[in-house]
Each structure stands twice: as structure tokens, then as C-alpha cells.
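Before the break, one more example. Copy the sequence into your notebook; we will annotate it together after we see the structure.
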Amino acid sequence: MKKSIISLIVAVNLFAVTNLEVAQKSDDASSGFESSTSKMTMTLINKTGQKSVRELAGKTLELDGGDKGLMEFLSPSDVKGTKLLTYEHIQRDDDQWLYMPALKRVKRISSRNKTGSFMGSEFSYEDISAQDIDKYSYSGDAQEVEINGIAAYQGERVPKDKNSGYTKQVTWVDKTRFVVLRVDYYDRKKELLKTANFSGYKKIEGVWRVGQIHMKNMQTGKETILAWSQDKIKQGLNAGDFNKRVLK
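Here is what the structure looks like once it is written out:
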């Protein structure tokens, strides 16, 4: 009887998938786009249900050691021309600069301010930056669960950045496609702060691309929906397209 129990434990462990393995497969599923251009809408919803819609354009350059990204607001007029430039770094804090056309100046976002709201949305500057797997610590095995009728792996990741606004993030990853379905963000008090639901995935030239992220602040009731209307990969962009000069 003891041998049977031991054999069962060994068999279960052989088929177990670690949280790090899930993260690596998820990263592989969304890698290889080289560079991308996109058009997006950002819908802000307050706790009473009132909505405000903004239009944006985005660019991303995939690089070893950290991607580069540029977001620009196209409308409405009060935010038009505002740009956010992000240089991701694996071993140190990301660099981020915000250009505000009304002031005609560039503001550097310090590492301590990256927990703040990005343009009044429920996304922080930290959320907008790329989520490279090397920025997190992973331990233990993933749990096999179901979310919205989809078989998934549930696990945890802990930000390595001491200035992160989160103590941990709980993730749900599709078992088949290895795309992220949901992330729960826990604040510095270790309380649930926000929940992001990811949907509308499309596979473009072998790369999975998200279509919508619905971020809800569980403490304030406010929400932000970021939806992609156009998304193109392998656009031939280079580092010059992300020089700080493009902000002005």
C-alpha cells in the first residue's frame, strides 16, 4: 500500500507544471513580433458608470534586454499629443518619459511614481511597461483550474522591483494557448487592488496578440478598458523610432 501511495506521488510530480514553466511558455506565445504598430481606444468608467473614450496609437520594438514602447493620445483635444515613451530594462528600473503638449515639456517618471495612475486610468505606469518574466520571482507548481469555462493554470508571481506597487500578482494562463486570461494585483497592504481580464486574442503570424484588457479597481469601483482596433506586427521599426526626440 505504501509503495502505491509513493508511486502515485511520484507520478503526480512528474506531470506537475511549475509557475516558472507556465510563465516561460506564456512569454514564448507572445514573443517574436519584432516590432508592432497599433490603434487603440481607452475607455474610462467611473463608479457611477459614466464613460470617457480616448483614442491612441502605439508602437513597440522587441529587443533582448528590454522592449521599447511609445504611446500617443490622438483624441479628445484635452489629451491629444500626450506621449509616453518607455524603455524596459531587465536588471534595473525602466525609463519612462511623459510629454505634455500643453506645457511643451517632457516629464521623467521616477521609479517611485510608477505606481501612479497613467492619465487618470486604472492602469499604472508600472502596468503600461512590458511585463518581462525576469522582472518577477516564481515558486511552486501551478494549479490546474477553470476560468470562464477555459482550462487554465493559476499561479503567483512576485515583482522583484522594490518600488513596485504590488506585493504579488495572481495569474490565470490558458492551458492550450498559454495566453494570459486574468491577473489579480495585490497592493502593498497585501489586499486585492485590481483585476485585469484579457480577451479577444488573435494569432498573427504565429504570435498571440491580445485584443482587450479590462482593468477594474476593486477598491474604488472604477474601470478602464483598453481595446485594440488595429494591430500589425513585423513593421520594420528600429531604435531610432523610439529616440527621446520623438516626444517633441
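The CA atoms of residues 58 and 71 lie 4 Å apart. The first helix runs from residue 2 to 15. Try to locate both features in your own notes.
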